[in-house]
UniProtKB/TrEMBL annotation:
It comes from the Eukaryota. It catalyses: GTP + H2O = GDP + phosphate + H(+). The chain holds residues 113 to 573 of 573 of the full protein. This is Tr-type G domain-containing protein. Its main location: cytoplasm.
């Protein structure tokens, strides 16, 4: 909570504990975009996002100086930019990003929320919560050690498949550390070419037109907001910077200045906290518009509440739209009816509450095939719970999208399959393609510490 607050201070210049400032009209007119940062450990994700946030004025140089001083004290001076995102004590000592940290900055047309995902294997679940919330992905690749992240055991491929399976179609690939290879165009291409083959190939399946590449140096801050590097300019010319590419991402179905924002209100709770007898939540709006004073239905508890006060992008706002993160208090409801993974929606358009549903999943790199009856950990939008694979219904042909091989015996790596899942307690979810941003239909399965499959809910069953 504090972390989100601190992040929002950056952009709005607020002070913790003070009443939120009045909304900035310009910020409110911009379309919200949630960007998850993926890639192998040490690719430079945190350095890049730290530098970006500083350049966009979302973090002050004072904060940076504090981080620099602290990082020197424990002998990790080069991590100063990374520390903008790595705020916990633990993370600093280890020099890795553990939590998904949320930060905001504004470009010409967008308010961007950065979800920084860690690359370490054992921290993968945090990356999942970032990916579930995202509208687009930024992949950071280390040009000096590309193979380490790309071959078996590296996270680059798995992260790409995961975001694609969750329905995230837009991708920016930042080929990083070009300073360390003398800004060589040949080195840039030698990484970009095989990577592009994988990204648009059958395993990841991105559309070529939705993927953009750029060379940069996170450490030197080159080609993030501007490009003053003569060696890069020699072959990149006046090509796009990272911020140009982010600004140009599509935000279809998202609230924007035209007021277009897909269907009735729905959203999922990612945090709950109580002050005195007041219950407050953080939530991502997944569709429609939420207004201050509005009555909402809480599922699966099936209680109603009144929304009191909306705080979005660090300011009090009268309403917020599809794609926004918002903090709000819930009145007239007992606290135990609201929890992380609760869904809030328009009482006249309740979403399904189920204990059994089908999902279309992409199967990841597995040691043991997935079989009927298997117990798994299920990440469904903002919730985590155990689930059972009750039936393997069909395999989907990746080229045609058609169902074939009804009732397969087992699922192995690379398959796309329709699976029926059952859960011990009712969950509220949304179905693929029912409008809005799509977060509420995203599902990821893990078993024995590994992500085994990810995809989208199809329908209650
Ligand atoms: P993450 O694990 O992906 O978040 O990676 P970090 O941001 O923590 O960076 C890992 C290491 O790479 C640190 O030592 C950084 O200083 C270094 N690094 C990051 N970006 C660059 C870059 O553009 N050029 C060079 N030479 N080193 C970089």
């Amino acid at each position: 909570k504090e972390r989100v607050r601190a992040a929002e201070e950056g952009i709005m210049g607020g002070v913790e504990g003070e009443k939120p400032p009045e909304a900035d009209a310009r910020l409110l007119s911009l379309a919200p975009l949630n960007l998850v940062v993926i890639g192998h450990v040490d690719a430079g994700k945190s350095t890049l996002m730290g530098h970006l946030l500083v350049k966009m004025g979302a973090v002050t140089t004072k904060q940076i100086h504090r981080y620099q001083k602290e990082s020197k004290e424990i002998g990790k001076g080069s991590f100063a930019f990374a520390w903008v995102l790595d705020e916990g004590e633990d993370e600093r000592a280890r020099g890795v990003t553990i939590d998904v940290c949320v930060k905001h900055f504004a470009t010409k047309h967008k308010v961007v929320t950065v979800l920084d995902a860690p690359g370490h294997r054992d921290f993968v679940p945090n990356m999942l919560s970032g990916a579930v919330m995202a509208d687009a992905a930024l992949l950071v690749v280390d040009v000096t050690r590309f193979e380490a992240g790309f071959e078996r055991g590296g996270q680059t491929k798995e992260h790409l498949q995961l975001v694609r399976a969750l329905g995230i179609g837009q991708l920016i690939v930042a080929i990083n550390k070009l300073d360390a290879v003398g800004w060589s165009e040949d080195r840039y291409r030698s990484v970009m070419d095989p990577l592009h083959g994988f990204i648009i190939g059958p395993e990841a399946g991105f559309k070529s037109s939705n993927v953009q590449y750029l060379p940069l140096s996170a450490f030197e801050g080159t080609n993030i907001v501007d490009n003053n590097c003569a060696e890069l300019k020699a072959w990149w010319g006046e090509g796009a910077t990272l911020v140009d590419l982010i600004d140009g991402l599509q935000t279809k179905g998202r609230g924007d200045s035209t007021g277009a924002s897909g269907g009735p209100f729905k959203g999922c709770v990612s945090d709950v906290w109580r002050t005195g007898d007041k219950t407050s939540v953080s939530m991502k709006v997944d569709g429609g518009t939420l207004r201050n004073g509005q009555k909402v239905l809480i599922l699966p508890s099936n209680e109603t509440a009144i929304v009191k006060g909306l705080e979005c992008r660090g300011a009090s706002v009268p309403e917020c739209r599809s794609g926004d993160y918002v903090d709000t208090a819930l009145l007239n409801v007992e606290p135990h009816f609201v929890s992380v993974s609760s869904v809030l929606c328009d009482p006249s358009s309740p979403l399904p509450v189920v204990t059994s549903f089908t999902a279309q999943l992409l199967v990841f790199d597995l040691d043991i095939p997935i079989v009927k009856g298997q117990q798994v950990m299920m990440y469904l939008h903002t919730g985590v719970d155990s689930a059972t694979i009750a039936a393997l219904e069909a395999i989907v042909n990746k080229q045609t999208g058609e169902r074939e091989n009804k009732r397969p015996k087992a699922l192995v790596k690379g398959m796309v399959a329709i699976v029926r899942l059952t859960v011990p307690k009712p969950v509220c979810l949304d179905c693929k393609g029912s409008g809005g941003v799509g977060t509420l239909s995203r599902v990821i399965l893990r078993d024995r510490g590994k992500t085994i499959a990810a995809g989208l809910v199809l329908q209650p069953s």
